[in-house]
User: What shape does this take?
Amino acid sequence: MMLARVATFLEALGARVNGMIVRLGFASRFFWLMLRLSGTSFRRFRLTIREIYFAGVLSLIIIAVSALFVGMVLGLQGYETLVRYGSADAVGTLVALSLTRELGPVVAALLFASRAGSAITAEIGLMKATEQLSAMEMMAVDPIARVAAPRFWGGVISMPLLAALFSAIGIFGGYLIAVQLIGVDEGAFWSQMQGAVDLRQDVANGIIKSVVFGVAVTWIAVFEGYDAVPTAEGVSRATTRTVVTSSLAILALDFVLTAFMFRGS
Amino acid sequence: MMIRKALDLWVGFFVALGAAAILFLALWVASSATLAAADGYEVKANFGNIGGLKVRAPVKSAGVVVGRVADIRFDNESFEAVVTMNIDRRYAFPKDTSAKILTSGLLGEQYIGLAAGGDTVNLKNGDTLKLTQSALVLENLIGQFLYNKAAEGGDKK
Amino acid sequence: MSSANLVEIDDVSFAYSATPVLAGVSAAIPPGKVVAIMGGSGSGKTTLLRLIGGALRPSRGAIRVFGQAVTSARTRELYELRRRMGMLFQFGALFTDLSAFENVAFPMRERTNLPERAIRDLVLMKLQAVGLRGAAELMPQQLSGGMQRRVALARAIALDPMLIMYDEPFAGLDPISLAVIGKLIRDLNDALGAASIIVTHDVHESLQIVDYVYFLSGGRVIAQGTPEEVRRSTMPFVRQFVHAETDGPVPFHYPASDYRATLLAGG
Assistant: This one.
């Protein structure tokens, strides 16, 4: 009896894993199709500009506000800990390195996934449900070239800009708390930071991370919308999947990239 | 069509803002002192022990960064560490300059300190420094301290 | 010979999964005619349209449009074929982020190299033909269902297609809109010299405008004829359909176990 239960469980597990692998394969083919059909996104750049607006510009507020608060908390917490070792001057370094290396790209990507990613999935899913994608196909316009690719490039272009903004505003937030509120020496704040943050090692790596995240998140968002079951419930589940899968992908990729980049020179 | 213009405006604003953020990070936050290899000349130095010295550690003289450590190797014949430094072309050092491995702060990272000698001839690309002092390894220091203490105690008896 | 037909459907079978939706359907659409494909819900009518448009591939059989095989066409050839087809989707399927004008202009902008001035004139002409030139700048959300469908119709004929397909064009419309759409379908077909295929189960409206009817049931064509023949048909299924009878070959009850036995067993 028990054996039968275990057997059915394993069967179901196997079926699910199989399903996931099939989906991954489909998603990969979709990715290559999007890249191949990206010509339209650049020849008619207007389409991509529209997507940069919806993905990037509309995320500005949430990115800016979150960055400010994260930076302020970093400044506060950092000061509390560093002051015990007489190293309060290093709070600038702490804030800057945490943001440029990790928090900037990662948190900005997570916010982007939940705000812009879910919006993209919902939009494409609804277009599928109302047969707009089929209508496009019948008019011999490839929806992947016209709908999917511009959104993909819009996300990839927006992501590093948002991550850089996050880091910059976060550092400013840290500055506000540490220097203006607590009273850490302004000169020490900036000079220690400049001594510790390296252009190639920290800033550039952070930007590279954000580009990778942008590719992953937008790819997932566009694919889930395209693959959604064309009903209200289907679209809702696709949106949820986008946010969950993107978040996990961001964190996993972050680990891999960090291991590569910051391997202790 | 008005909507199009507003869209373009916002996207342009967004891209400008993002570019400004990247510039800010690059110029005001990061150190712009990453030396390009082309601007420097190479000088080698052998050390008995480099301690915790790493590649890209700073090379300082009088406390000012004048170059970076480019390469660290082990010489299997002399059993010494061969450190290659990349010195900024603007700074010329005499041939009898000495190199010491110092620590920034008490427990900070290690760097090479150059003390200029008095020779009239300057170092050229590819030269090797003759005078070097290895890093102070903490364990050796403590061991020496304990040994001295024990020797003192032994003497008193 | 039948090579004069615009569309030839030759013993086509199709299944989405295990259960077949179409099992050996054959039909022909001559040029200049409006043909209705009728049947109950789930009888495969919309699937047939998708097969003709090349969005689906049949598991057996062949479909030829304008003399060319759709079923084995490569992507490029398929896209060329579709340029001469127009399709009106159920509920319109207008692009919600574009205005009515831009929706109609879409196929012109994407598939032709016409200058903007020419496109503007053409779009206004198409909208005039469906009576909505005044609503050109409105967004789809601002239009009623019937008006949305008319804009979608203008979009479907944007490139003067030779074959126009309608997927349930009468579904959910008020009587006035019904009559308007019916009139438009007929007039546009005759004006363009095209052939039209209407998938519908609106018997009253369609019998008034079509030249020929095919009845689908159980995945095959069980009856066909002119509207007059259909009205006078004595076939049980056709009779039930045309005269809207509640029970007949299409049963009222979903297949279930014996009623008395089920009630008694529950006690």
Summary: Chain A has ten helices and no strands. Residues 35-259 of chain A form one domain.
